Amino acid sequence: MAKVNKVELEGKMYNPKVITTKTGKKMGIFSINFASRKVNDNWENQYINVKCFDIDIPPAGTLVEITGKLSQEKYTDKQGHERIGFAVIADEVTPLGQSAVPQAPEMDEIAF
Fold first, then answer.
1. CA distances from 40 to 1, 43, 44, 45 (A)
2. pLDDT the model gives residue 110
3. Which among 18, 50, 53, 81 has the fewest CB atoms less than 10 Å away?
4. What is the pLDDT of residues 10-52, one digit of tens each?
């Protein structure tokens, strides 16, 4: 059986930025809010980090559709503990619309 690693998500973009990797490649990184759930009468947003190469990224607050692959990554948190996180490596980032949104919490604990 062939293994398939394909992710399709739709959500609002937060904290977009473009960085240059050690090899000189431009990489877009951002988070998207892809789901909300109710916990103890409060709504909690769920975010996932996204990385993309050679793709123009829209501004924060844009509703986007992401198509790509799920990536598991090891990182060290601020307390020095080894952790495992997940990110989507996007093949496509399709803008679906713009909306005003507040800044999302920083997602800086997962190493890009």
1. 42, 8, 10, 13
2. 45
3. 81
4. 999 998 999 888 898 889 999 998 777 777 887 788 889 999 9
Instruction: Give the Cβ contact number of residue 80 at 10 Å.
Output: 6
Domain span at residue 53 reads: 7-98
25 within domain boundaries:
yes
Closest CA to 101 of 63, 52, 58: 63
Phi/psi at 103 (nearest 5 deg)? Answer: -65, 135
CATH number, position 24:
2.40.50.140
Give the torsion through C-alpha atoms of 77, 62, 68, 31, to 10 deg: 0
pTM passes above 0.90: no
The model's confidence at residue 56, banded by pLDDT at 50, 70 and 90, is: confident
Report yes or no on 69 lying in a domain.
yes
